[in-house]
Amino acid sequence: MTTATxxxxxxxxATSCATAEPPAKQATSPTxxxxxxVSPVTTxxxxxxxxxxxxxxAVNVHKVGWTKAKVYAKGKRVRLTWWSGVxxxxxxxxxxxxxxxxxxxxTLYEGASxxxxxxxxxMIAIEKTTxxxxxxAIGKRKIVDGSKV
Length: 149
Hints:
A hairpin with a 4-residue loop joins strand 5 and strand 6. The N and C termini lie far apart (71 Å). Strands 3-9-6-5 form a four-stranded mixed beta sheet, with no helix packed on it. It has one helix and ten strands; from the N terminus they run αββββββββββ. The protein has 149 residues and is mostly beta strands.
């Protein structure tokens, strides 16, 4: 066998292996014990964060960190972005803004809506956004995540 033949055969084998789909995972039905095919769950990411407003009526309220703060409207508004759960299981309860001469501390509070009492909640992360209005333009002040203070 020549080197060229061996090399060509290896190349064909390598490319055919790289394009093959992985075999489907096998599981058994909990009720019948029969084999069932399991497919991976995929969710298409959303292109834009979901805009939300505070509800003011959530239960089990806690602080949640935001990932991005974008200042606009001549420094008078801040658009916050963060990862959260699906409503009504996870809703924005309130936004607290504390302004000083050197910094603006913004704290997001989330909880569950009272409507989520008898709802089955899926565990999936979605990106959300909300906008806060400042009393005074941001200027050179630093924006701080209140969940980390």
